Amino acid sequence: MLLAVPVRDVDDRCPGVLRPFAAADGAIVRLRVAGGRVSSHDLVTVCDLAERFGQPFVQLTSRGNLQLRGLDEPLPGAFVDAVAALGMLPSATHERVRNIVAGPDASLDSLVRQLDSAIVDAPSLASLSGRWIFALAAGDETLPAVPADVAFALGADDDGSRAGEMRVDQMGAGEVRVGGRSFACAAHQAAATLVAVAEDFVATTQHDDGRFWNVTDLPDDHPFFARLDKRVRAADMPRAEARPATGTEAATSKSRLEVHLPLGLLDAPAARALDEVTQDVVVTPERSIVVRTLRDGADLPSATRHLRGAGFVTEPGSARARFSACVGAPYCRRTDVSTLDLTRAAARIFDDGNRCDTALDDSRIGSLIAASTPEHASADDRRATVSAAPRVHVVGCERACGRPAGEHHLVVAPHNLTDILDPNGRS
Q: Do the strands 134-137 and 150-154 form a parallel or antiparallel pair, or are they unpaired?
């Protein structure tokens, strides 16, 4: 069994497997999934572990990772060993800093693996905050919508198309982006360059008493930026032309299917349904799952119907895909608000036009729904209304756990559905 290693004593509470976080319902652990790449079979195994050792669901996080909660403290050795056997704990020292988000394009797979190995092989990066993020994107994709500290965007091919995984030495050039700067970089040097930037951050902040966790925390005159500007000046490669697609274009690619889970909660039955149609998936920071290839004999329409029947959301405009929430009561001791129940009810109202249960009803709900989606509006009209609006994230306290990186409406400690549905309500 792997043993926990000493960590610096700062207020960075991002959990890992060897450093869980104590919540009201037990220990929380987070499994880093490099670039979101994971097999559907491994997702089934993780859900089975959640059911066996803690709460019977897995949370998809806003950084494309997997979170389990309600585990015993200290963690059972059998649980830690099972996670290690899946390959999700390749390093005791670097487990919390393996935060790589990447677009789902298969051309990035080898680069994701190379970057993950390079992070683990850099001793100084063990002291990075668990909030530091590396990001990767193919030339025909946008960078994931997360506050990345350092990113690499691969340049597009002449025809802008990619088919399957590529070796890193087959790739061309791209662009490194960090701290408001950018510079050209060959793909085969990208992993080493991103790690070197992170090492610069560690070296220049080591005497700052743990005050700075991310590049955005640094003042403009911090020594890190002097090193960064030196790298920018040294980069004399010609820039590769990139033609990034919009998120919608990428999500509606004919070669893959993107599905959401209500509130980003995956359980064992849903994971098994996913495994029945595919083995090749990517977990995204949008708390969605991209199905990249289908099992032999499956087709996209039947796979979509199968996943919809298992509880997945397959309609991009659905409120069930746009509403999210922290875990709330009774799982978190910081609040007595049942955020999950309230948010589920709010999403149902928008998607189905249903009235909520009596226990959650409010005298103003009817007028609020009528104002936003009139009774004669079709289901498509309702979905269009929600799709055009910013994402809604509901939290039980000011800590605002799990809030999306992009534009969103934050609802803090709602007392009822009105506080969520009223555009002038709490935020």
A: parallel
